[in-house]
Design brief:
Number of strands: 0
Structural class: mainly alpha
Largest sheet: none
CATH superfamily of the largest domain: MetI-like
Radius of gyration: 22 Å
Shape: flat
CATH class of the largest domain: Mainly Alpha
Oligomer: single chain
Number of domains: 2
CATH architecture of the largest domain: Orthogonal Bundle
CATH topology of the largest domain: MetI-like fold
Low-confidence stretches: none
Mean pLDDT: 83
């Protein structure tokens, strides 16, 4: 969420350099497969870190932790999509409210916290919820760098016991349970963000 919020702010920035950097980030990340991003961060990061350490006198093979590479890759990919969602949410906030806040001299940070953020969450939450569910399933991708996540563990257990179908079905059920729980939490949050709107419409 933080990466997406920063990206959305950069895309709406009056500075061309920030807008260009954010546009390049979202275009590149959304234009390549997620698994390629994982490989680039895992192997490319290891090469870059090894080169830096060699410059300061350290010699030896350096390898980035698979968990760290996976987290960074998923955050990078999800952040690119969240950037577009949050940007659209910010633009959906009525400009008259922003102008009114400026007219009374409200500081920008306070204006964002009290006016923009609550409405931004209400507009963007359904799409953010979908992105969360997609990312939940995309965690299976990071098994390619040797991380023992759910799908890889099921694969290893299935191969060792020759009960692949059983373990893959168990993994599928666990993914389904996580998805159902996530959807329930997202719906609760959506109800919370719509509470004030419902009161106003009834009044």
């Amino acid at each position: 969420f933080v990466i997406g919020l920063l990206g959305a702010g950069a895309k709406l920035s009056p500075f061309a350099l920030l807008r260009g950097a954010a546009e390049t980030y979202t275009t590149v990340i959304r234009g390549v497969p997620e698994i390629l991003v994982v490989f680039l961060i895992y192997f490319g990061g290891s090469v870059a870190l090894g080169g830096f350490l060699n410059l300061i006198g350290y010699e030896g093979r350096v390898e980035i932790n698979g968990f760290i590479a996976g987290v960074v890759a998923l955050a990078t990919v999800s952040g690119a999509y969240q950037t577009e969602v949050l940007r659209a949410g910010i633009l959906a906030v009525p400009s008259g409210q922003i102008e009114a806040a400026d007219a009374i001299g409200m500081p920008k940070l306070l204006r964002f916290r009290r006016i923009v953020l609550p409405q931004l969450l209400r507009y963007a939450l359904p799409a953010l919820g979908n992105l969360w569910l997609v990312m939940l399933k995309d965690t299976a991708i990071i098994s390619v760098v040797g991380l023992d996540e759910l799908l890889r563990s099921a694969d290893v257990a299935g191969r060792s016991t020759r009960m692949q179908f059983t373990f893959f079905m168990a993994a599928a059920l666990l993914y389904l349970v996580l998805t159902v729980i996530s959807m329930a939490v997202i719906q609760l949050i959506e109800r919370g963000t719509m509470r004030g709107v419902k009161r106003a419409s009834r009044a």
